[in-house]
Amino acid sequence: MSYKLTYATMFDPPAEVHARFDTALAEVMGQLGADHLLHVAGSDCSGEGWDERRSPIDLRRVLGRFAVADAALAERAMEAAHAAFPAWRSTPMPRRLELLRRVAALIEERVYLIAAALTLEVGKNRMEALGEVQETADFFRHYADDFERQHGFEHALPDDPLPDFRSHNRSVMRPYGAWVVIAPFNFPFALAGGPVAAALVTGNTVVFKSATDTPWSGRLLADCLREAGFPPGVFNYLNGSGDVIGQALADHPRTAGITFTGSFKVGMHLYRAMATGPYPRPCIAEMGGKNACIVTTNADLERAVTGIVRSAFGMGGQKCSALSRVYVEDAVADALIEKLLPKVRALRVGDPCLRDNWLGPVSTSNAVRNYERYCDMLAADGGHVLCGAQRLQHDGLEHGYFVAPTVAEAPAQHPLFAEEMFLPIVMLCRVGDRTEALRRANDSPLGLTAGCYGNDDDLAYFFEHIEAGVTYGNRPQGATTGAWPGYQPFGGWKGSGSTGKAIASFYYLAQYQREQSRTVVE
């Protein structure tokens, strides 16, 4: 099959994709309710207890029981990773590349089975789930290829200009040690697998903690790494709360570095913690977004509406890159709304296991509570709801976390223009011109993604002035979403990222190493 699945191509897949997903879903459904262990020092193990997880699609459906780690097991995992580091650091690069590529192959062999589990656990539709799993395989392969292409980041430098000696110089990048990866619930496979692959290929060992809401995805990733044949202790998998396990890992003296994906509040807490102590340690924090789209008077409104709907409501708005704010020039605002609302109302919301449903539930009970609170706020401070703003509780949806995709219009001063909601809610504001639109788009402490619809001059102005790390112009596949390894580097500015370096970029892998200058005199 020549079809290449990415977030930009997922909207019209071949029939074979759906058939294979349905077959895998039936197999996975037959395995629900099993117990799932942790993985430490090369062996699967239990924890201090078990957490029974249920599907956000239907809370009557038990996914399984998942072992929960305690601080003692976190200590054991860190010691195992630390002990395994010297041998792994010394493992020849071809062997490390071989193991990463083996993980990629295992993920691709299981892409439908893992995607079915993701749909059940997170509530994303089948194409979003398949995209996430394939993206993870691409991360492992991309980072292996990039590290090989960079020759392990080793560079010969000129000899010193000495008349009586030969003085040879080299720049060598060396791994840090035991690296901690903390993943979010919304992309629990890709945003775990990506940093795990980056840390491992550069010679670090890894302790990975899944999000408490999505331990199944973490376990499925651990299965692929275990079966690929990594030496004991090189990769370790834990499940547990951020307050207990996450904090224990951040505070551990063996922790050489952290990659965290999640909220600005938690990311900054970890960043500050890693900066204190006897010396600063690296913290790659990928944090939130309050992403804006600008629609000018020169925009193709049909294209803009398609991109807005896909970015605002894909995966229920539970993406750090999801579109949250639309700034539209007043001259075309009514026409944009007239085109937008029918497309939003036409979205099929329901069980995402079914092919016809594009929007599933939000992933957690906390998301439902936030949705109801935000919907009450939308009508205040001069705002008004244009569509949605209701919990869906018909035809069996009352057993899950289903909510209506929501569009609201409000003045620029509305407080929700400043709050990352992480829900299927998009807010629209009328502006006088593109200058005002850019100013309001940049009026945020976050700067992850942004989009613009307009003519060539509008786009040039947008790219020159927008304060965001991932930017799109006239993109119907998604106004602010859809980055893919090898095509679009993904990372934020300002409060959206701690390093200014993007995932899967030219500069990403080097963050997992530190430079050593070597001089030898003959």
From TrEMBL:
Pfam families: Aldedh (PF00171)
Domain of life: Bacteria
Pathway in which this enzyme or protein is active: Amino-acid degradation; L-proline degradation into L-glutamate; L-glutamate from L-proline: step 2/2
Reactions catalysed, as given in the entry: L-glutamate 5-semialdehyde + NAD(+) + H2O = L-glutamate + NADH + 2 H(+)
Active site residues of this protein: 286
UniProtKB keywords: NAD, Oxidoreductase
Residue stretches making up the Aldehyde dehydrogenase domain: 55-512
Entry's EC annotation: 1.2.1.88
Coiled coil regions in record: none
Family statement: Belongs to the aldehyde dehydrogenase family.
Protein name, UniProt field: L-glutamate gamma-semialdehyde dehydrogenase
Higher taxonomy: Bacteria, Pseudomonadati, Pseudomonadota, Gammaproteobacteria, Lysobacterales
